[in-house]
Amino acid sequence: MPFGCKYGDAMPAKDIYHQTVKIALVKDGWTITHDPYRIRLTRGKNLFVDLGAERLIAADRDTEKIAVEIKSFTRASDMKDLEDALGQFVLYARLLIRYAPERTLYLAVTEEIRKTVFEEEAGQILIEDGIIRLITFDPTQEVIVRWIP
């Protein structure tokens, strides 16, 4: 369940970069459709991914839909932050496959975190093995830097 939520039934606390990522996605051509994006489970439980967004794909006039979980990695241990973010990412990704298969989940982190965490061995393995997808952003410029993969 999301950090800050009890039993998945309350709204989660927003990450410090929540608004920054929203602005960056809009600048990148996305429309924010959900803030947060709710995953409704049976028996009344809810989980919340930070954002839902979509954009028009001009070539086939269809929409691309994503869900974005934002993480700031503010603890003293980057590895502990990675463990927690990965657990949450895997849970949400599996639930989205079942309940919203049209959405692709991304983890949004600063470009600096990509360099310090996801260029290290553990982070690289997660990316190379297709376990995690990243959006990196510049918090000062409020822009998306890269999409991985």
Please describe what this structure looks like.
The chain is an alpha/beta fold. It has one domain (19-57, 66-73, 81-111, 120-148): Trna Endonuclease, Chain: A, domain 1 (3-Layer(aba) Sandwich). It is 31% helix and 32% strand. It has 4 helices and 8 strands. The protein has helices spanning 18-27, 78-99, 111-116, 121-128, and strands at 31-34, 37-40, 46-49, 51-57, 62-70, 103-110, 134-138, 143-148. It has a 6-stranded mixed β-sheet with strand order 1-4-5-6-7-8, with helices on both faces. Strand 7 and strand 8 form a beta hairpin. It is globular, with a radius of gyration of 15 Å. The two termini are 25 Å apart. The model is unreliable at 1-8 (pLDDT under 50).
In short:
This protein is of the alpha/beta class.
List the helices and strands and how they pair.
Elements: H1 18-27, E1 31-34, E2 37-40, E3 46-49, E4 51-57, E5 62-70, H2 78-99, E6 103-110, H3 111-116, H4 121-128, E7 134-138, E8 143-148
Parallel strand pairs: 5-6, 6-7
Antiparallel strand pairs: 1-4, 2-3, 4-5, 7-8
Question: In CATH terms, what is the architecture?
Answer: 3-Layer(aba) Sandwich
Q: What best-fitting shape do the alpha-carbon axes yield?
A: globular
Largest sheet: 6 strands, mixed
* Strand elements, count: 8
User: Approximately how much helix is present in the residues?
Assistant: 25-40%
Following the backbone from N to C, one meets helices and strands in this order, namely HEEEEEHEHHEE
Strand order in the sheet with the most strands: 1-4-5-6-7-8
As a whole number of angstroms, the C-alpha radius of gyration is 15 Å
Low-confidence stretches: 1-8
